[in-house]
Amino acid sequence: YKRFAERLAQLEEAEGTFDCFTLSYRSFGIQRRPDGGLVLREWAPGAEAVFLTGDF
């Protein structure tokens, strides 16, 4: 339980609340914009490079 409590405290310090953390799917990943375009956001702390490939 100690590890869980420590991790939860870290998460709440970074995100505000656990509920805010659970709603991150609304910001990350592929999201459609109001104008019909798409936005991709990825959380990658410490990443030196990120690549997006595919047929678009």
Count of helical segments? 2
Q: Determine the mean pLDDT.
A: 91
- Number of structural units classed as domains: 1
Number of strands: 2
The rounded distance between the terminal residues' Cα atoms is 46 Å
Helix share bin: 25-40%
Low-pLDDT ranges? none
Order of strands across the widest beta sheet? 1-2
Strand content: 5-15%
Described by strand count, sense and barrel closure, the largest sheet is:
2 strands, antiparallel
What is the element string, with H for helices and E for strands? HHEE
What does this protein look like?
This is MHC class I antigen. InterPro entries: Ig-like_fold (IPR013783), Ig_E-set (IPR014756). 34% of the residues lie in helices and 14% in strands. It has one domain (2-41). The chain has a two-stranded antiparallel ribbon. It is built from two helices and two strands, in the order H-H-E-E.
